[in-house]
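Posting this for the archive.
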Amino acid sequence: MSRLTRRAFLKSTAVVTAGAALSARSWGQVSGANGDIRVAVAGINSRGKNLITEASRIPGVRVVALCDVDTAVLDAVAKGYPDAKKFVDFREMLAAPGIDVVAIATPNHQHALQAIWAMEAGKDVFLEKPVAHDIWEGQQIVAASAKYGRLVQAGTQSRSSTAIAEAIAWVRAGNFGKITLARALCYKRRTSLGKTTGPQAVPSTVNYDLWCGPAPLAPLRRSRFHYDWHWQWATGNGDVANQGNHQTDVALRFLGETALAPHVFTVGGRFGYVDDGQTPNTLISMLAYPTPLIIEVRGLGSKPDIYSNMAMGPGGSAGANTSAATMDSLQGMAIGNLIQCEGGYIAVPAVDYSLAQAYDRDGKLVKEFKGVEGHMANFIGAVRSRKAAELNAPVRQGCISGGLCHCSNISYLTGRGLRAGEIRERIQGNVPFIETFGRLNEHLAANGIDLTKDTATFGLPLTVEPKTERFTGSDAAPANALLRREYRKPFVVPQLA
């Protein structure tokens, strides 16, 4: 395998390799094939820490490089891994010798470009969800995997759950009859970001140019630098593509769907506070497969609490904008999945995906399924065997579950504000969505929000062509415009598909 010099890499926006894909023979010449797999982890403030731990526990795996644009984070985490080299610039890390695999847990807007760069440099990739910031980027990742012959595992770890696999097999064997509805629930408290009065200071330890990457180099408008990027469109995709991506993926496994839903529409809004956040903290999305899938996102508690308009301080840890407020639940579930069947339902709590439970129509527990395998270990096994079929979560499937979340956001962004009565008129005949909207009304009312006076965004009903992954129909233009973003040079995602 030809190696790039650091200088050659940094001269261009993408890595240039001598060969597109490694043959079986050339792979055997890479040290990771028969010896240790050498792993680099990028984005180590939150989920990346878990990936470091998971990789380190696998026999024959060494974490040899750590990368983060915040030197405070980098130095703190690196203390526990003194043999790992430290990098601030992702490109410099890729140009260094002795790396076989790159695990990427950076913010969403970096995923596609960094994954493609890594594949161009001859690395296999473990890519956190959502695998891309938009639908078009996902297509380019899949194309890069094929072009460069690299393996890419999506970070939807429920795909390595034996409990879920057994529950799916049990349902498909006819034990509960047909599936009638799949629900993906994300009732997860998210507090206000707070409202800034002007641009905020970027932490002195952060290389902000590298952090922004493909996104605009815009003034910072949030009080807490880390994690809260999830709730601003330039860098994040809201909770529907954060926690909700996991639950959407579980639902797809039960339904057996492997393409985008042909019809999508949403109702939602950012309710309960006025802050610097942009993404909806409340969203219900109808994904109209032959057996429908409904995503429900709630960021407010079951009633107002002291965190309703309070942002966590800059020193808060990643994920600290959750509170201990009482959350709503549906059939005992707040975060997880409910798979409704003719003869009962399957509950899959999103703790560690090691449990699935079957309840009959009277709510009696009739069977439990337990077990989960290591998601990173599955990836490393496929890296050794070079068999893409062994991946539990191939990136193409990650693009579908993430793409459904992106479709939901696109419907929301192209929608308009309506009151409850007007929304009901538009969803007549859609029995499961009418019921879901009714419960949403009750939830908002408990938080002092009256949709007979206030409005919710009724998302544009979208028709999707699954093969092209584009929207069709007379109203498709504004939606198609959101399939792809503009990029800031030199951080441009290449068009490969």
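Residues 395-413 form the longest helix (19 residues). Confidence is low (pLDDT under 50) at residues 1-31, 311-320.
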